[in-house]
């Protein structure tokens, strides 16, 4: 079926799209929610770090990108979400509703959730309301095995944020493949999530098998 990929720029959203293609689906458009002038958001739902680079991923994949600025916040934090005016989840609903009108053949949504029930349940709520099928191929996978699989299958990503013991400024800009062994060691020593599900780090994908061309970072600065 035709699928829209929810993308943050990070490894999970890109690898889930790879899995969707493996399952016989077609990625026909990309969707991204970004923070606007507010900068990085403290959001339970969305990765906002690196959002400015998502357009390059769309270009690399040769797909249309639909974006919406996040205007809401985490108002309804109940386990079972119900539509709430002003909640950031409604920004996702409006974005996917618009995309569905532009691409009536879309039946599914690629979602890179691994372990956040909060995120997964809210995406599922939006999908039910729009009669779309959420595709969550990474859900509850063993993170050490999943990270290894991503790298083995040609996903190339760099670290763009770190926030965990053992990860410092020198890790920024390094390839995920270069820090894999370090992440596994930190997992056994301190319980760091190998895929960063606890917010330990964020990534930006510069190449993967879905790309028609790779992304080259010519200039960067660590803040």
UniProtKB/TrEMBL annotation:
Ranges of residues in domain Diphthamide synthase: 1-220
Record-level Gene Ontology MF annotations: ATP binding; diphthine-ammonia ligase activity
Annotated InterPro entries: Diphthami_syn_dom, DPH6/MJ0570, Rossmann-like_a/b/a_fold
Keywords, sorted A to Z: ATP-binding, Ligase, Nucleotide-binding
Superkingdom as given in the UniProt entry: Eukaryota
EC class name: ligase
Annotated metabolic or biological route of this protein: Protein modification; peptidyl-diphthamide biosynthesis
GO biological process terms held by the UniProt record: protein histidyl modification to diphthamide
Pfam families from the UniProt entry: Diphthami_syn_2
Enzyme Commission designation: 6.3.1.14
Catalytic activity: diphthine-[translation elongation factor 2] + NH4(+) + ATP = diphthamide-[translation elongation factor 2] + AMP + diphosphate + H(+)
Signal peptide: none
Family as reported in the entry's similarity comment: Belongs to the Diphthine--ammonia ligase family.
Biological function: Amidase that catalyzes the last step of diphthamide biosynthesis using ammonium and ATP.
PANTHER family linked: DIPHTHINE--AMMONIA LIGASE (PTHR12196:SF2), DOMAIN OF UNKNOWN FUNCTION 71 DUF71 -CONTAINING PROTEIN (PTHR12196)
Name of the protein in question: Diphthine--ammonia ligase
Organism this protein belongs to: Parelaphostrongylus tenuis
Gene: DPH6
